[in-house]
Amino acid sequence: MSESLYTINEARQDLRKALATVLEEQVPPLDDEMNLFQEFRLDSMSMLETLMELEDMLGFNVDPEELDIKDFETVGGYSTFLVNIKAAA
Fold first, then answer.
1. Which pLDDT band, with edges at 50, 70 and 90, does 44 fall under?
2. Is the CATH number 1.10.1200.10 carried by domain 8-88?
3. Crossing angle of helices 8-23/75-88, nearest 10°?
4. Domain boundaries, the chain
5. Is residue 11 within 8 Å of residue 72, measured between CB atoms?
6. What is the mean pLDDT of the segment spanning 71-89?
7. Residue burial 32-46, b: 16+ Cβ < 10 Å; e: rest
8. Could you tell me which residue, 89 or 18, shows the higher pLDDT?
9. Residue 28 has what DSSP assignment?
10. Distance (Å) of CA 9 to CA 28, 42, 65, 75, 80
């Protein structure tokens, strides 16, 4: 009974889907070095909306008090955050 692990590639794809939903536009393939605030002109509100979309998609909840903005600056950082959250769930 091995449970498949949530991978960084899956996290990147889920982030792309969430961004497309929040931004209501096509999102190009993501690169780990992309700065989400600069590349997609996100602000703190749209970043929170993206997190809420991911919570709904993936079935987890995060206490906003425990968030560190540095985890959300780049695609790689955000993807790693998602993998860690899913592993802890």
1. confident
2. yes
3. 110
4. 8-88
5. no
6. 93
7. eebebbebbebeeeb
8. 18
9. P
10. 15, 22, 27, 11, 10
Query: Which residues have C-beta within 8 Å of that of residue 44, sequence separation ≥ 6?
Result: none
Q: Look at residues 88, 5, 82, 87 and name the one whose alpha carbon lies nearest to residue 36.
A: 82
**Integer Cα distance of 89 and 61 in angstroms:** 9
Specify the pTM. 0.90
Question: According to the model, what pLDDT value does residue 2 have?
Answer: 46
Angstrom distance (rounded) from CA 12 to CA 14: 6
Query: What is the residue-wise DSSP string for 34-79?
Result: -BHHHHS---HHHHHHHHHHHHHHHT----GGG--GGGGSBHHHHH
Give the span between the Cα atoms of 82 and 80, in whole angstroms: 5
Residue 48, by phi and psi: left (phi above 0), alpha (psi -120 to 50) or beta? alpha
Could you tell me the two tokens for 19? 């961004």
